[in-house]
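I am writing to request your help with a piece of structural work I have in hand. A protein sequence and the structure tokens that stand for its backbone fold form the material at issue. Please examine both parts with care and let me know of anything in them that strikes you as inconsistent. The record follows directly beneath this note.
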Amino acid sequence: MILPAIWTPVRIAWTPDSAPSETAISNATRLLEAVKGAVPDWAGRGDWPTVCLHWSKAKVEIEVYDDMYQLCQFDPVDHATITVLDFETNAEGLSELIKATGFTDQLQPG
């Protein structure tokens, strides 16, 4: 699968023969389009095969499955506790995910 242009600034950490599923990539593409300039530091492949999007400075990872988005966010105080929330891949779930991350017009989630 050839990635759409929105992926150009993202460092991809998978090979063509071990890429995530096409559905997960499509869902991740919708997320990247929705968050506009909030470009993740890199994207890797999870085990299922999912897309894992990483925002290192914000301590946020979103794992994108065929049927859900999973937000993993480090606690800003202790940097050890992780909150994990699941969201559907429909328009309402995507909107809820963006709201939960605190993505704004800035380049990083808040």
